[in-house]
Protein 1
Amino acid sequence: MPIAMITGATSGFGRAAARRFAAAGWSLILTGRRSERLEALKQELGDSVEVLTLTLDVRDAEAVARAVETLPDELGQVTCLVNNAGLALAPQPAQEVDLADWHTMIDTNITGLVNVTHALLPRLIATGAGASIINIGSVAGSWPYPGGHVYGATKAFVEQFGYNLRCDLKGTGVRVTDIAPGMAETEFTLVRTKGDQAASDALYRGTTPLQAEDIAEQIFHVATLPDHININRLEVMPTRQTWSPFTIDRD
Ligand SMILES: NC(=O)c1ccc[n+]([C@@H]2O[C@H](COP(=O)([O-])OP(=O)(O)OC[C@H]3O[C@@H](n4cnc5c(N)ncnc54)[C@H](OP(=O)(O)O)[C@@H]3O)[C@@H](O)[C@H]2O)c1
């Protein structure tokens, strides 16, 4: 059976992707910091497929390397890495943000993603044809918006890192895709507002955001394409979300 390793499987896209891959019989390596949620997911999925849970902070390079080095033999030949763990903080303007929040986004969305990718690359290359790295970027990586500051910049990194990886992985069979979602209803806004459920509810009220399952379906689709197809970037928005015009400061 093919094997998927999914970071940030305790919530949102990651958890929905775990369910989608499990439904197709894939073996799973699921990571996140909240072990009780990982355990619950293992209870839910573990009867039908093999599930290994790793309580892991992606920012901890040593812990990530150790966990990947010590994968059990039967789960060592990873087919698909879903680099999903990530977060936005500080929706306020840049000039009002705590520096610590910028560092947390950089450490998680950039350093964490790089840590996991570096650890997994030898295993993915050993798998060869059909292997893939699916990075979860964001429309924020391409399209600026007020309050996007460092979050958008981290997702621009994710996009460019993926393209550059593709150059180096030429000939290995390993594919790299940046899936860039628009607005999706997960715990993302609750995290961004540091637990403000009312603000999160207000953002999604009266419209039709993407659901975690919508993105999980795209992740699974990309992972199961024929070996010779590489989708470089897949930008997915709700039909009811579009762009704003440029804004102009006037006297
Ligand atoms: N929802 C959106 O509108 C949206 C749009 C575009 C892109 N995205 C991106 O999609 C990805 C998933 O977000 P989501 O919407 O599914 O949000 P979510 O429901 O908050 O899930 C985020 C996941 O990331 C994990 N995570 C965060 N920091 C981590 C760390 N230091 N180490 C390990 N795991 C960590 C969390 O697990 P633990 O807390 O258990 O560690 C959780 O499982 C993120 O990269 C996000 O930037 C989201």
Protein 2
Amino acid sequence: MSDRRLPPALAAAVAERVRPERLGEAAARLSAGYRANLPSRQAVPDAAGVAAYAASRMPATYAAVTAAFDRLAAARPVFEPRTVLDLGAGPGTASWAAVALWPTISSLTMVEASADFRALAGDLALGGPPALRQADIRRGDMVQLAGLPEGNFDLAVVAYALTELELAAAERLVVDLIARVGRIVIVEPGTPRDHDRLMVVRGAALAAGTRILAPCPHAGPCPLPPGDWCHTSVRVERSRAHMRLKGGTVPFEDERYAYLVLESPSLAGTEDENGGRILRPPRLSKHEIVFSVCRADGTVGEVGIASRNRAAYKAAGKLGWGDFLSNDDLN
Ligand SMILES: C[S@@+](CC[C@H](N)C(=O)[O-])C[C@H]1O[C@@H](n2cnc3c(N)ncnc32)[C@H](O)[C@@H]1O
């Protein structure tokens, strides 16, 4: 599992540029705006808003993107991307997460609509490795892929940004990306709204022949009943400044996110065989661990592992919400 904390160079760059004590109002506006599903241009409309975003949201979005990248790296351990496209890049969060995991990356293209976000992304990138310092940070509308440099990208990431598009535009974007990009990681807030939207996008991706590497263990319709939603959670350490800014009382926050890892049908490959995706925190008793799982046959259900089955019980104790059960875990 990769380190989910901001890399020290990025954390230092944010701390240097952002004074949390001056950002209370902008941070409150940002939280209220995103809770009301306002797009960034309204929730984060100026330089103070962008600074508040870096201080209050970047550690959590970085952690969620890293966790989703880990799922791609687990499914494709020999994948070594060189060229990465980061759409709706904001301050460059996902680009930083990508270079931390894959040092092979030599070319980063960030597409971002907001001048304030682009300015901060460029400023923060100065403290990063060469791929970040040389990143192409371009003004643009992420749904217009036609303006991008010629050639295909090894990886595209759309982090907390698809949520800001009209649903039809999000579907079109993902289908267009599949034609130009080998692998695509989409990360969204872990809300019922974003799950529902992601399932529509998933349907469009499947219709275009795409393989889903995670989180779904099957290519059938999502079997969750109405009102339930597929998401998971990553724990993020909080600095004192961050706690003050967000009025937190504990030194961590749990970031809930939903995600999809897609693979172009033009690449050779198959989906992994597995025993199902763990859909929520396991229920633990002295006698058994019970996992709620989405299974490879397209159904959801519960799997219990009894403590008398010592080896399997011990192995199951290491698994958590969002992990895959392997077929071995079940025996
Ligand atoms: C919530 S922020 C996420 C930033 C970053 N990806 C992260 O994970 O921290 C969403 C970003 O998408 C950008 N955005 C929204 N719609 C866009 C569009 N059509 N084209 C380019 N950027 C867009 C916003 O300006 C904002 O910077």
